[in-house]
Amino acid sequence: MAISIAHLGPPGTYTEAAAIACLDWLKQETGQDAVLCPYLSIGQTLEAVASKEVQLAVVPIENSIEGSVTMTLDNL
Fold this sequence. Notes:
- The protein has one domain (3-75): 3-Layer(aba) Sandwich (D-Maltodextrin-Binding Protein, domain 2).
- Helices cover 42% and strands 25% of the residues.
- The protein is built from three helices and five strands, in the order βαβαβββα.
- Strand 4 and strand 5 form a beta hairpin.
- 21% of the residues are buried.
């Protein structure tokens, strides 16, 4: 069974790139397949993990424009 990895969409973001790196690492280190599940907001991404809709999530904690991403930090 594949592991589901939620990430903040849309395609082409740094968060998606980090999720792809996570997917590749899981495959290499554990042999487990994984699928990416994009979400429209950080809140939806984290809620997907809390509700066990997915097993993992990749969300930004800092960016070059605003610095710390408070939505992520407040919900961790």
